[in-house]
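> run fold UDP-glucuronate decarboxylase
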Amino acid sequence: MKILVTGGAGFIGSNLCARLLDEGHTVFCVDNLITGSTENIQAFIDHPHFKFLKHDVTEPFESDAEVIFHLASPASPVGYLEHPIETIMVNSTGTHRMLELARKNNARFLISSTSEIYGDPLVHPQREDYWGNVNPIGPRACYDESKRLGETLVMEYYRQFQTNVRIVRIFNTYGPNSAIEDGRMIPNFITQALKNTPITIYGDGNKTRSITYVSDLVDGLMRAMFSPNTTGEVFNLGSSEEHTVLEYAQMIIRLCNSSSEILFETSRVDDPERRRANTTKAQQILGWQRKVDMEEGLRQTIEWFGKRIAQYSTVS
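> ok
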């Protein structure tokens, strides 16, 4: 099929592009590279069924795509706090443009939303029918609230035009093609551990997170897009295995055989205390299950980060 992936040079987008090419699809990757990187798509940049366009999806462009994965958006605190207006616009105007393209092309459409739409949740674990607890004017609102608005747009296109849409709320994901300076927990901890520098924890380390390896997440995106009975549905994709931030830091120090110490700093504003997905719906409707063991996934990610850091060191 002819498939458009916005944000396709990002962490998850590039892994999705690789999977789509492996399955024989023609992939049109559009990314303005404010947080994505051409390094992430270098392995298949010359693939005969792959095309890359450096472009901001808030501006018009043409595509005859039959399937649209709309992943474009800064997704880490470093990314969206550095680009707050761009984040708001890509999740509102950009989403609107992609929905119009889906309506015009009669295409399947998937938006990658986020667990951040739940804010600092008062319900645990979080189910798709939970409305969230979000600060609408805080520093993270540029991401949280624009993703919520993006979901609203998607559902209005479903109600008003019967557009073939679905929403996937992505929980913490890790793996190859993460940015070294991503700013999120796993990339930060691995980079610091490999360099034997202090590992920074914001808060006392007792906040919890659940993490999913990127290949499992991509499998969930594929199932959400192509499985029957998914039109108009919302799916959580994440892990039900919950650990404290301190436990992740200690595990990564061990796996890296690192001498890093742990440094505790002030909590980030509006950083959730607990985060774990209820994925019952994805399991029942999509048949989705995580396959990659956490320690195995972390080992693969550490190996990838080690090579990338060595590559940067050589260049510099």
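The two ends are 41 Å apart (CA to CA).
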